[in-house]
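Please check our next protein.
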Amino acid sequence: MDSALTIRNLTSRSIEFKTYGYYVTAPSLSRGGMANITQNVTSLFRNTTTSAAPPVAEPAATFVHQDVSIRIEPFSSLKIDIKPQSTNETLQLTFETEGEQHRLATPTPTSNSTELEPLADNPRFKFTAIHLIEHSHLTLYSSAYLSSWMRSLRDDTPLSALSIPGTHNSPTCHRALPSVRCQATSPPEQLDNGVRFFDIRVQPEAPLDATKDGLILVHGVFPISLTGNKYLRDLLKEVYTFLERNPSETVIMSIKREGTGDANDAQLSRILRDHYASDPARWFTAPRIPYLGEARGKIVLIRRFSLDDSLKSEWGGAGWGIDAENWADNTPNATCPSGDICVQDFYEVLETVNIDKKIQYSKDHLERAAKCVCTLPGPDGFPSDPPPKQPFYINFLTASNFWKVGCWPEKIAAKLNPAIVDFLCRKHNEVVNAESDQAQAGGDGSTGIVVCDWVGYKGNWDLVRCIVGMNAKLEMRERNT
C-alpha cells in the first residue's frame, strides 16, 4: 500500500484541507510513537462514492495534530505523505469550504461511504467520502439527497448528459431462480436511493384480446417470482407514487418483450400505448432524448421493440418512444441506428475468468461517456440550432451463466460493482498532462446510464452515490453559464 494518501476533490467547490491527526481507536493507549508526517503536494485525480456513518467522536488521545491549510480545487487532487504505524490508529481530517468546516475519521468499521461531520450548526454543505484503504485514496464529493438528486440540475439539461444510476431487470428482487434474480432491493427502495433507470422485460398475457392489458414481468423465459406472476401495472403504481412525491425527478424505462408464448412486438406496442402510456402528464413518448425540464415527473420510454403500423405515424410520422429496437446483442460497444443509444451489453461471461473482460468493457464505456461535453445554452440560446446530439451511453455492469454458480448475477456483481466504485473514485475522467505529469479533467465526466445488479445489497449504495456524484462538473458548468 502506498504510504502517501491521495485526496481527490470531486465536488464543484474548492475545499481547503485544514488539519490532520491520529488517535488510537483500540482500548490500549500504550503506543507512543507516530510516523513522521510530511506534506508533499502534487496534483493528481480520482472520483467519489457512498452512504453515511455516525458522527466522529472527539479522540480520547491524539498523538499527532498538524495544521496544513492546503487548497484542493474542484476535480483535482493532492498527495500527502501520511504513514500510520498501527491498524489501531485512526486518521482524522478536517476540511473547510466557504468558512464551514467538516470532519472525517477514517477508516470506519464499515466499507460504505462516510458522511463528513459538520462542525457548525445548520451547515449549508454536505460532503461524503470513500476511503479506498488498499490504494491510500480518499475521494470527496457533495452529498446528494438521493430521493431528489435531479433538482439541482437545470431544466435545459439534456437527459443524456447526466450520470444516471440504473438497475438491470429492475423488479427481480423476489424469490426466484438464482440466474433470474438480479436485485437485492425493491423498485421503491431503488428509487428512494437514487436509481433513475429501470430495465423492464414483459410478456403480454392475452395479446389477441385488445381489451386486456396484462403484462407479466419476466426475465428471459422465466417469471421473476416463484410465488406467482408479477405485473407491470403494479410496478408502475410504485413509480407514479415516487414521482408524485418527487416531481423534480424522472425515471427512464427501457421496455423489452421476452417470455414464452406467441405474442409479438406490434401487440406489445399497442398494449402499452392503449393501456399504459397514453397520458402525456405521466409519460414522455416522443422519439427523441428530452431535456430534463420536459421529463420531470414523468417516465421516459426507451423501446426495445418494433412498432405496430398504427404507432409509426405518431409524433408527425417520427414514431413512438426513443428507438432502441435494433440493439446489438452481446456487444462491448455499439450504437443503435437511431443514434440515440450507445450501449455496452456484453453479457456472455461463461467462465469466472471472463469477469475481468467484462470489467474492462465497462470501464471503456465509462470513458466514452466521460469525454462528452454537453452543449449548454447561453443567454441567447444554444450556439447552434439544433445542438449536437449526445446519445445515451448505456453501460450494463451485468452478466450471467445459468450453468455456473460463480457466474450468477449476484456473484458477478460482487466482483464487478466494487471494481467500478474503485475506477470511478480513482480514475474516471482523469487525463494526465504529459508536460506537467499532473492530472486534469477531460470532458464533463458523465458516466452515462450505469445499469447494475445487486446494488443496495446490505445497505451499500456506494456505487449509486459514485454515479450521482459524477454530475458535479456539469452542475458547476451550469452555474457558471
About this structure: Confidence is low (pLDDT under 50) at residues 28-54, 434-439. The two ends are 42 Å apart (CA to CA). DSSP finds nine helices and 24 strands in the chain. Residues 17 and 70 are 5 Å apart (CA to CA).
